[in-house]
Amino acid sequence: MQHQNINEELLKKNRVPKTILIAEDDSINVLLLKKILVPLNFNLVIAENGVEAVEKFKEADYDLILMDVYMPEMDGLEAIRQIKALNLKTPPIIIISAANLDERVISEDLGVKYFLSKPIGLMEFKELLNRLL
């Protein structure tokens, strides 16, 4: 429990609120991410598909992108390709099912270094946030 408190303290000490673009079509997953991130002082922008994620990325600067792979209209991998073409400096985290190793290999080919497996492990997620932000 103390390890969790240390991570939360590190995250809460954000000097300036950070903004995260979340591309996720599953409303339950979005709710879960909000419950984790809002208390840690993150500003969240939600996109329900890859097309919307690319458009929102063009409109503002983000400190981090959380991108689901399977979404309607445009999948997360294609959205990352298009965002990278816009000169991506924002680190993306790809959210994948633990069983879908093919998506991880493709993501790595795109230069993605960070992954979260569903179901998202709270401690792993917070440690990754600490490392990236």
UniProtKB/TrEMBL annotation:
GO BP: phosphorelay signal transduction system
> Under what name is this protein listed?
Response regulator
Gene3D superfamilies documented for this protein: 3.40.50.2300
Naturally occurring in which organism (per UniProt): Pedobacter puniceum
Q: Does Phosphoprotein show up as a keyword for this record?
A: yes
What keywords tag this UniProt record? Answer: Phosphoprotein, Two-component regulatory system
Per the record, residues carrying 4-aspartylphosphate are: 68
Which residue intervals define the domain Response regulatory in the entry? 19-133
User: Could you confirm whether the keyword Phosphoprotein appears in this record?
Assistant: yes
* Family annotation (SUPFAM superfamilies): CheY-like
